[in-house]
Design goal:
Blueprint (H helix, E strand, L loop, with lengths): L2 E6 L4 H12 L5 E6 L8 E5 L2 E5 L13 E4 L9 H9 L4 E4 L11 E3 L2 H4 L5 E4 L2 H12 L5 E10 L6 H15 L17 E4 L2 H10 L5 E8 L5 E9 L5 H9 L4 E4 L14 E4 L2 E2 L5 E8 L7 H11 L1
Parallel strand pairs: 1-2, 1-5, 5-6, 6-8, 7-8, 9-11, 13-14
Antiparallel strand pairs: 3-4, 9-12, 10-11, 12-16, 14-16, 15-16
Helix pairs in contact: 1-8
Length: 313
């Protein structure tokens, strides 16, 4: 018997990526339905396994209660996304996986980095921020070396704000190239040819829940690149570590690829793996610095969400 899954906003960047992952997942058998939260009342058209499907607007929370699992791929909040909040308040038995990480739903969901996060129970999750998912994977992998604390500098691309933000970035770049001031903002910022330090309090709270056993200090920067998440990770170990031992541990995990330098962000596209630049040890061998790169539409996005769904069905 297949599980009914309702995908909210399947035509966003995250939604399309989830449909791709679902189409490739021959081990998952689901009855799929769709709704969109756009402000208009028009039907949209999605495609799964080369079959077209109509996507009606989400008219109310009662449309969601028959779903076995609701997967949210929304990239912005609208009047209709409030129905999702009503669902979580009024129907606590409905399972939810929020890939869009909507601010209005954050109090109702727990961050998850994959199937292991679901093993403790619960039915309401959001995919953790992609660099945090990658960090959790690295920390688990190097666990035998006893990391005692960590720092993470998160670098967010424009694509976290959806397809429209990518178009806005192009618009901003054109204005700046001509010496003008852009009149369209991305999260109230001009990101073309720029970097902006952002508040990281929410990420700190998420990290404490996702990685409770290791103190982790966080910073966050928004940058003017189209796509791909970066994390600059620093680890401190209880005892000095050997470089070959550290690399050997990392190479045992197929979902982490130890990459030669230079490592370009362009290399992450469409990959379900964490790309990890060669780690650098401090002279006393107690600290390691490393850069992680991921396709945030997959790691911390669609692939992570599908792993959570697999664990739920």
């Amino acid at each position: 018997m297949s599980t009914r899954i309702l995908i909210i906003d399947p035509l966003t960047l995250l939604g399309r990526e989830f449909l791709r992952c679902l189409e490739d997942a021959t081990d998952v058998h689901l009855e799929v339905d769709y709704r969109h939260t756009a402000d208009d009342d028009e039907l949209q058209i999605a495609e799964l396994a080369a079959e077209p499907a109509l996507v009606p607007p989400l008219a109310g929370p009662d449309q969601l209660t028959d779903a076995g699992i609701v997967v949210i791929a929304s990239d912005r909040e609208t009047d209709r996304t409030r129905h999702l909040e009503d669902l979580l308040v009024r129907h606590p038995d409905v399972a939810v996986v929020d890939m869009g990480r909507l601010d209005g739903l954050a109090d109702f969901t727990h961050p998850a980095a994959g199937a292991a996060s679901v093993s403790g129970g619960g039915r309401r999750f959001r995919t953790a921020q992609p660099a945090l998912v990658a960090t959790a994977m690295v920390l688990e992998t190097v666990g035998p070396l006893e990391p005692v604390r960590a720092s993470l500098a998160v670098v967010d691309p424009v694509s976290i704000h959806g397809r429209d933000a990518i178009d806005t970035l192009v618009h901003q770049a054109g204005h700046r190239m001509q010496g003008g001031i852009p009149d369209h903002m991305i999260d109230n910022q001009v990101l073309a040819f720029s970097q902006v330090a952002m508040d990281a309090d929410t990420l700190m709270e998420e990290a404490a829940e996702l990685i409770p056993n290791i103190p982790l200090a966080l910073s966050r920067t928004a940058v003017g690149c189209f796509h791909g998440h970066v994390g600059h990770l620093g680890l401190e170990f209880a005892e000095p570590v050997d470089d070959p031992e550290l690399r050997e541990l990392i190479e045992t995990r197929p979902t982490i690829v130890l990459s030669d330098l230079p490592l370009s962000l362009a290399a992450v596209a469409d990959r379900d793996q964490v790309l990890l630049a060669q780690p650098q040890l401090s002279p006393d061998r107690r600290m390691a610095a490393m850069t992680v790169m991921v396709d945030g539409l997959r790691i911390g996005g669609a692939s992570t969400a599908l792993d959570i769904v697999r664990a739920m069905i």
